[in-house]
């Protein structure tokens, strides 16, 4: 049997059986690779399936899948290989499905055109599986312009080319691995046969405006998610460095605040809620531990951090605390926390906003970025401290 067919048979077995089942089957067959492991979780899923695939004939495969049918319906629409086909119920045929897959790709490209090409190529570039915002980034690289495929992605499902996978909270999109080669072939053919049309100026319709607004919201959501991820990682890095040098963490954990700063900001009320959460995150420092390292009776988390830096790293970057103080001002010098105060306008100017009211969504993005900037500079100066 050729190597390509063996590899495909292994993929089929993986679609049918989780790692524990592959382990049991390999043990029953006394396969040396499987026998070396005491626990199934130490075995590589693919390698275990590959060893079984090498050891069984096609007739053995049919017998095995009938005697040990999948516990659940097969995901990714069954199996559509070059040599093997399986229904979602687990019925195996010793025949390929690539001709049907090829027709489905061509149909998708006829209907969805360049954008359909861009999305499929982007996911293949990411290894066949990608989260939504990764697809946006890669599609832009493929097409040369930004495109948000939220309405397009589900249209590949009925053609069994692309499936929503992962958890409900963190979904991604997956092309079945056995059909990637044939999709890649069709995408190459499409790219070579289609010339990019010249852009034609069109009358702006109400739908165009709605689409642009939706795109702006997605871009903002993307930007906020990215900086929130960086904030989480930088706080973790700072805690590790701080603990190694001063035997205490700097930041307390606050999962709810981290979740809340990921939310979009569409108006002034949203901003009031978001800035309240961010200042809570700033205040959540191990202030009692920090006080052990300073000589004065300072209060307030930012003041305590500043006194610590002045005493131990006097050449620290001053915008660390300047950013934090101005963020705090945006919270404390404005209704509903306190009465409106001109210092709020000064803080707006610090963040680059000259008029009132500002674009609240844009202000929130800038404020988050400035908080991350403080974390980044804080990590740099802590890294230079010799304990």
Structural account:
The chain has 387 residues and is mainly alpha-helical. 59% of the residues lie in helices and 4% in strands. It has helices spanning 3-16, 19-28, 32-35, 45-55, 58-67, 98-125, 132-143, 180-193, 206-246, 255-260, 268-283, 287-291, 301-312, 319-332, 343-350, 360-384; strands at residues 79-80, 85-86, 92-93, 129-131, 163-166, 171-174. The chain has a three-stranded antiparallel sheet with strand order 1-2-3, with no helix packed on it. Strand 1 (79-80) and strand 2 form a beta hairpin. Residues 199-204 and 206-219 have low confidence and may be disordered.
Strands side by side in the biggest sheet: 1-2-3
Total DSSP E strands = 6
Number of helices: 16
Mean pLDDT: 86
Q: Fraction of residues in helices? A: 55-70%
Mind sketching the topology for me?
Layout: H1 3-16, H2 19-28, H3 32-35, H4 45-55, H5 58-67, E1 79-80, E2 85-86, E3 92-93, H6 98-125, E4 129-131, H7 132-143, E5 163-166, E6 171-174, H8 180-193, H9 206-246, H10 255-260, H11 268-283, H12 287-291, H13 301-312, H14 319-332, H15 343-350, H16 360-384
Antiparallel strand pairs: 1-2, 2-3, 4-6, 5-6
Helix pairs in contact: 1-4, 2-4, 6-7, 6-8, 9-16, 11-14, 11-16, 14-15, 14-16
